[in-house]
Amino acid sequence: MSSRRRRDEAPMPASGAGLLRFFEEESKGIKIRPETVVIAAALLIAAVTILRWLIPL
To answer: Where are the domains positioned within the chain?
Structure first.
């Protein structure tokens, strides 16, 4: 490895220990944006709250 490349690419603190840098690995599966998850959770909470109010047990 050239000295120029070493200067451009700073090593991660634990890279010498053989730990994997997780952001370099591409995982398979569904990719969902965080905003979508938060909105879906809020809608689910609202739906459950409304149903509990409309149909008391």
So the answer is: 3-54
Residues 21 and 12 sit within 8 Å (Cβ to Cβ): yes
Q: Spell out the residues 6+ positions from residue 15 whose beta carbon is closer than 8 angstroms to its own.
A: 21
Task: Say what percent of the chain tops pLDDT 90.
Answer: 39
Q: Is the distance from CB of 15 to CB of 21 less than 8 angstroms?
A: yes
Report angle CA 52, 32, 19 to the nearest 5 degrees. 120
Quick one: the chain helix, strand, coil %, rounded to 5?
60, 0, 40
pTM, 2 dp: 0.51
